[in-house]
Amino acid sequence: MTEFERSRRMPAPADQVFRQACDVGKLDLWMPRDLHVRAEEPPAVTVHEDETGQDERALLRAEQDQLRMEWGTRDVDRYAGWLQVAGIDDDSSDVTVHLSFFDERHAPPAEAVEQALDESLERLAEQVRQAA
């Protein structure tokens, strides 16, 4: 298994950040640019990957009371991940994103994943700033 994790401070309270991060209709605004999520019957979603042109069935669950979102593939154990928001004070919070790729042979290159995580967290921070 190959795992990656990144964290970033956000300029808003934890509940506000969590609402922005978990809005299925806005996931495309902050997730990696080549991934697109289409909601189905919750918690089911379809993830479209531009690079391969394929759709993959996945699950996406958000736990408001825990400020945690979890996702993963449905049909094969290809990957899973989670996002956790932690309040720092009234005006800021930390967001941590964790990804696990279960088959190391099919895991993307580490540099690409780390860059995608950093860019995604930056886009989420911008989305949170704009929503404030």
Short note summarizing the structure:
By secondary structure, the protein is α+β, with helices and mostly antiparallel strands. It is 27% helix and 43% strand. It has a seven-stranded antiparallel beta sheet with strand order 1-7-6-5-4-3-2, with helices on one face.
Shape: globular
* Class based on secondary structure composition and strand pairing: alpha+beta
Beta strand %: 35-45%
- What's the tally of helices? 3
Helix content: 25-40%
Strand order of the largest sheet: 1-7-6-5-4-3-2
Reported for the largest beta sheet, the result is: 7 strands, antiparallel
Radius of gyration: 14 Å
Order of helices and strands: EHHEEEEEEH
Report mean pLDDT, rounded to a whole number: 92
Distance between the termini: 38 Å
Oligomeric form = single chain
Secondary structure: number of strands: 7
Low-confidence stretches: none
